[in-house]
């Protein structure tokens, strides 16, 4: 599924990414995470039959991406990142809207993700999208930070 729109004279496209897009993905990943995914990790996800990697391009420049798995109606969000120069522009909102719409037609029942407990902006974003706290995974990240497990039940929609 692809989403195309024009906003303030800029062309916005949300669509699956391919291996050719990874050169643009990696700098965003490195700017977004203390322990970023590697090129190999992204290539593995592109080969994974239950995974999808979608990107949001503005005038053909990659602004952000979202990687997820969809297994038996359960959406597992693995990675969301937005380029620093596009943060605060609604890119993550658009990516989540796109993924939920795409997965809804595939029998989406619930969505899960882990987020650093200190990432208040991301937690606020996920709460706006109907996610609630599902637990804490202690010392989940390499640096010892906890992960907040968040869940959204689409049966309640």
> Helix- and strand-based class?
alpha+beta
What's the domain count?
2
What is the 3D shape?
globular
End-to-end distance: 22 Å
The major sheet is characterized as: 8 strands, mixed
Number of strands: 8
The order of strands across the largest sheet is 1-2-3-4-5-6-8-7
* Unreliable runs: none
CATH topology of the largest domain: Aminopeptidase
Rg (C-alpha, Å): 15 Å
Q: Look at the structure and give the CATH class of the largest domain.
A: Alpha Beta
In the CATH hierarchy, what is the architecture of the largest domain at level 2?
Answer: 3-Layer(aba) Sandwich
Beta-strand content estimate:
35-45%
> Overall pLDDT, averaged?
94
Element pattern in H and E? EEHHEEEHEHEE
CATH homology superfamily name of the largest domain: Gcn5-related N-acetyltransferase (GNAT)
Number of helices: 4
């Amino acid at each position: 599924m692809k989403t195309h729109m024009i906003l303030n004279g800029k062309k916005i496209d949300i669509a699956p990414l391919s291996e050719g897009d990874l050169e643009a993905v990696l700098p965003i990943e490195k700017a977004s995470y203390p322990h970023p995914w590697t090129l190999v990790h992204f290539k593995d996800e592109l080969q994974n039959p239950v995974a999808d990697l979608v990107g949001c391009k503005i005038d053909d420049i990659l602004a952000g991406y979202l990687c997820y798995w969809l297994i038996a109606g359960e959406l597992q969000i693995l990675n969301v990142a937005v380029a620093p120069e596009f943060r605060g522009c609604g890119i993550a909102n658009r990516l989540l809207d796109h993924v939920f719409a795409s997965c809804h037609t595939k029998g989406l029942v619930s969505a899960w993700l882990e987020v650093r407990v200190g990432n208040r902006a991301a937690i606020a974003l996920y709460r706006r999208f109907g996610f609630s706290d599902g637990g804490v995974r202690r010392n989940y990240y390499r640096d010892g930070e906890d992960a907040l497990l968040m869940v959204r039940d689409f049966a309640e929609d």
